[in-house]
Write a structure and sequence with these properties.
Layout (H helix, E strand, L loop, with lengths): L12 H11 L5 E3 L11 H6 L5 E4 L11 E4 L1 H4 L15 H16 L2 H22 L4 E6 L2 E6 L4 H17 L17 H24 L2 H4 L13
Parallel strand pairs: 1-2
Antiparallel strand pairs: 2-3, 4-5
Amino acid sequence: MEAVLLDTPAAGFLEGVRKAAHHRGVLLIFDEIVSGFGWAAGGAQEYFGLAPDLDTFGKGMANGFPNSAVVGRAELMREFEDVFVSSAFGGDTLALVAARATINEFQRKPVIAHLWAVGRPFQAGYRLAAAKADVRADCVGFPVHPKIVFRHAKDETNRMPMSLFRQETARRGVIFHFAGFNVSFPHSDADVDQSFEACQAALEVIGDALGDGQITERLEGRPYGEVFKRS
């Protein structure tokens, strides 16, 4: 299971899951492909102070290079001595070098603190801009992994302003993913300002479009589509 994505787990929830799993003789395994090296260098288990039996990390540990790791309790990890594990990039030493360099950066520099510091003002600024433009929109999730959403009752109704939003921000040099996005250590205050200004301008366009009902007419391409609902 993912320990966290957009919503904060309720108090005692993760502890309850671990207790329920162990009561049934089941291992608790965290998927930290997103939260690892984002919420904290040690992922959600470090951030929430709760260790699963096994934990999985992905390319965040190698700054985007194809690398992954399974970690966990020593007695469980010893079982891998008798388990055949293979992958297409199993012999890729370049990714191992990238992982080592990335982890060294996390240890030497305030990477995690910077991610939180960059994300907070962006989320706050976006909410203010949405209110000013009178658009039912929000920037939900954690500062390190925010997600822009529109608050209409139907998903289809939300898809059109999101399509227009992505068009107008891209026009201004900022590209967002509709399912959420990550802030990064290289992101500066200037990057946050540029992103916020693009959002502000896009929200103003959306506000006008909602006012006159001409969203489709303002789109220069097809609305985006989701193969499956991710979050």
